[in-house]
Amino acid sequence: MPERQVTEVEGRRLVLSHLDKVLWPATGWTKGEALYYYAQVAPALLPHLRGRPATFLRFPAGIGEEGFFAKNPPPGLPTWVRTVTAPSHEGPKERVAVDDLATLMTVANGYALELHVPQWTADTGPDHHDRLVVDLDPGPGADLTDCCRVALLIRDRLAADGLTAHPKTSGSKGLHLYAALPPTPAARVGGYARALAETLAREHPTLVVARMAKALRSGRVFVDWSQNATAKTTAAPYTLRATAVPGVSTPLAWTEVEQCGSPDDLAFSPEQVLARVAEHGDLLAGLLERADPLPPE
Fold first, then answer.
1. CB proximity list for 26: less than 8 A, separation 6 or greater
2. C-alpha distances in angstroms, 178 versus 122, 200, 231, 285, 289?
């Protein structure tokens, strides 16, 4: 395969490079395969990225070597790539918005293997969030099956408050649950998520922990409410993950969560994810279609 390949994506000229470079040594999965995956999954992925300031986890040397988070637009980024303003400790900064296939292929060609986005868009602004997210992280001695137990508790609690929960795997060890909101003050969303986590920890103390201290997590699931902070980002639906073998943050049906008997039941390869999208469409489509308000305080 040539070292550089010129192609056109949505009318944009792109130069793709090192397509045969192995990025996942354990399986021999290459950069070209990663780009192919993103090109094929893009119709399901892009609506969950569009308008959101992205953070990338880049691995120029491949998985197993040290990667790094990249927030600033990379040098040499084409002028047609849209950027949006996001707050930072150093003041407002420009971030890439992965709005279209050409941008997605550009950043993936730059070894941005993981895509992370916040719970707000350029349209809502950072002070108002349009998603609630709950990150379920198993501590030592717990696993994904325990996360599924907690996810069902959260689903029911959200439903009682008039919210619809949508599950996906983190692509690593845990689960993410989302609920779509009308633009809601960030502090209100974060406060609701924290109260939810603390209530569950009181009611299920042997299963759930809401405090961040790692010493408290043994045998329990940490309900990470802090992902709702404006500065935080969460692995996007359908993003690849930098696991030993190529993993994907995969949208789920609730029946899969209910019936999960082993972490392997909810571990999907990129090829399996593409087959799932071809068969079922985007299982997180409901997150884009209906937003319900938080209950009154």
1. 63, 64, 244, 245
2. 19, 17, 17, 12, 13
What is the rounded CA–CA span in Å between residue 203 and residue 210? 11
Cα angle vertex 238, ends 254, 155, to 5°? 25
Q: Do 268 and 275 contact (CB within 8 A), yes or no? A: no
Q: Where are the alpha helices (DSSP H) in the chain?
A: 31-49, 101-109, 144-160, 186-203, 254-259, 270-280, 286-289
- The model's pLDDT over 158-171, given as tens digits with 9 standing for 90+, comes to 999 999 999 999 99
The Cα–Cα gap between 50 and 288 comes to 11
229 touches 120 (CB < 8 A):
no
Q: Are 288 and 267 in contact (CB under 8 A)?
A: no
pLDDT at position 1, please?
60
What are the tens digits of pLDDT across the range 88-125?
888 999 999 999 999 999 999 999 999 999 999 999 99
Which H or E element spans position 229? Answer: none
Query: Which structure tokens are listed for 207?
Result: 């299963």
Q: Which residues pair with 278 in a beta bridge?
A: none
The rounded distance, in Å, linking the Cα atoms of 172 and 170 is: 5
User: What is the helix (H) or strand (E) element at residue 189, kind and residue range?
Assistant: helix 186-203
Which residue's structure tokens are 């056109």? 8
- Name the pLDDT band for 214 (thresholds 50, 70, 90): confident
- For residue 283, give the nearest of 34, 39, 45, 40 by alpha carbon: 45
